[in-house]
Amino acid sequence: MNIMKLEYLKQIKLFMIVILAMQATYSQSLETQIDSILTTVFKEADEPGAVFLVTKDGKPIYRKAFGQANIELDVEMKPENVFQIGSMTKQFTAIAIMMLQEQGKLNVNDAISKYIPDYPNGNNITIHHLLTHTSGIKDYTKMKSIMGIAKKDMSPEELVDFFKNEPVDFKPGEKFDYCNSGYVVLGYIIELVTGKTYEDFIEKSIFEKLGMNNSRYASDKEIVKNRAYGYHNRGEFTNKMQVSLSIPYASGSLMSTVDDMLKWQEAINTNSLITEVSKKKVFTNYTLNKGEHINYGYGWHLKDINGIPTREHGGSIFGFKSMGVYVPSLDIYVIGFSNCDCNSPTKLARDITDLVIENFNNY
């Protein structure tokens, strides 16, 4: 009996060794495959680079930095570097709105005239329209006069006044047209109902609460530890154009790290900031007046990769580009930041997500 038991234990031990060896081989193979995707773009060590993080079930399976965080000082990129994340800011603005709805301070079905009485056509534009890019408000970033204010520090009210009297592009709810102006208005409404600045509300109610200690409202003036510097490529690399960070505001003003963004994704998964009911509203694929789906919820694009639903959003701001893809059914998260607006991580992040889905489905 003891001999049989000993033999059984040996077989179990051998089985575990084989499993561990398979896992190690798999992990190494996946890392090599992800490397091969990223090094097609980020292949020069002396150029601006990127940071990518890939997680499964909330645990990192790939975390790497490429290129330079600062070309002039010859500072290598590292995974801890802080980037401007551009329009990924919209995720935080949308969740902030849902938090305030749960607190009874607003409702997504409210007309914006309730908060900004003099807003043109404000009785027919709702917070929901702003969140879903279906308001018809003209995108101020596409206005020719935008360069006239690009370096000017403006209050949210002044920024809203800059575009509010522009002719609308369509009636509310008729079309989906990605619109930064809508999220500027949302940021202003957040300030009006809380009595706090957008910056203060996001930093105190979200970043501090979640322990996102390396995330903040962007600044080119203040010292930001581990800052990645932004670049353009106009035939040669140049430092990014300087603009006032009051201009992107609630549509694109935040900075973060890939590790903090994992904390953010985990907070969404665990309902740390909003309830499951509110979360379902955030990730509903909304429709236009005629019933056509827009593939957008509140602050996230709702797409798919080979038929598997994803939640995605990217960002682009002078000197930086970002992209995050989450696969709810497999709990896979891919986040990538680039410090040159010449290198978009969007396709790379989607290709990596596709690769990880395939690997885990086959494993």
UniProtKB/TrEMBL annotation:
Keywords: Hydrolase. InterPro entries: AmpC-like, Beta-lactam-related, Beta-lactam/transpept-like. It comes from the Bacteria. GO terms for molecular function: hydrolase activity. Coiled coil: none annotated. Pfam families: Beta-lactamase. Residues 41-342 form the Beta-lactamase-related domain. This is Serine hydrolase. It comes from Yeosuana aromativorans. The lineage of its organism: Bacteria, Pseudomonadati, Bacteroidota, Flavobacteriia, Flavobacteriales.
